[in-house]
Amino acid sequence: MPHFTVLYFASAKDAAKAESEKLDWSSGIDAAALTRLLVQLHPELDQVLKTSMFAVNMEYMDQDQSWTVQPGDEVAVIPPVSGG
């Protein structure tokens, strides 16, 4: 079965208790469906995902959420970060 990889950073990594995981791919996984799937797998991600950005294959995705995940994609969950 085709799959895609999710990478977790910062507070997303803490909430998911993982740095990454491979998930089974199915058609129609857009940003909303991905968010629902990740919260179902890791309920602690709920609040983190509300302020996080997604990057697919190292490219930030638009906030309009019109993109979909494809087989083999690498999706990064990037929470807000502060610097100093």
TrEMBL record:
Source species: Entomortierella parvispora
Matching Gene3D superfamilies: 3.10.20.30
Coiled-coil residue spans: none
Top-level taxon of origin: Eukaryota
First and last residue of the signal peptide: none
Modified residues (Glycyl adenylate): 84
PANTHER family in the record: MOLYBDOPTERIN SYNTHASE SULFUR CARRIER SUBUNIT
Keywords: Cytoplasm, Molybdenum cofactor biosynthesis, Nucleotide-binding, Phosphoprotein
Subunit structure comment from the entry: Heterotetramer; composed of 2 small (MOCS2A) and 2 large (MOCS2B) subunits.
Molecular function per GO: molybdopterin synthase activity; nucleotide binding
Post-translational modification: C-terminal thiocarboxylation occurs in 2 steps, it is first acyl-adenylated (-COAMP) via the hesA/moeB/thiF part of UBA4, then thiocarboxylated (-COSH) via the rhodanese domain of UBA4.
Major subcellular site: cytoplasm
Localization in the cell: Cytoplasm
Matches recorded under InterPro entries: Beta-grasp_dom_sf, MOCS2A, MOCS2A_euk, Mopterin_synth/thiamin_S_b, ThiS/MoaD-like
Pathway participation: Cofactor biosynthesis; molybdopterin biosynthesis
Family: Belongs to the MoaD family. MOCS2A subfamily.
GO cellular component: molybdopterin adenylyltransferase complex; molybdopterin synthase complex
UniProt name for this protein: Molybdopterin synthase sulfur carrier subunit
1-thioglycine PTM sites in chain numbering: 84
Any Pfam family: ThiS
Swiss-Prot/TrEMBL GO biological process terms: Mo-molybdopterin cofactor biosynthetic process
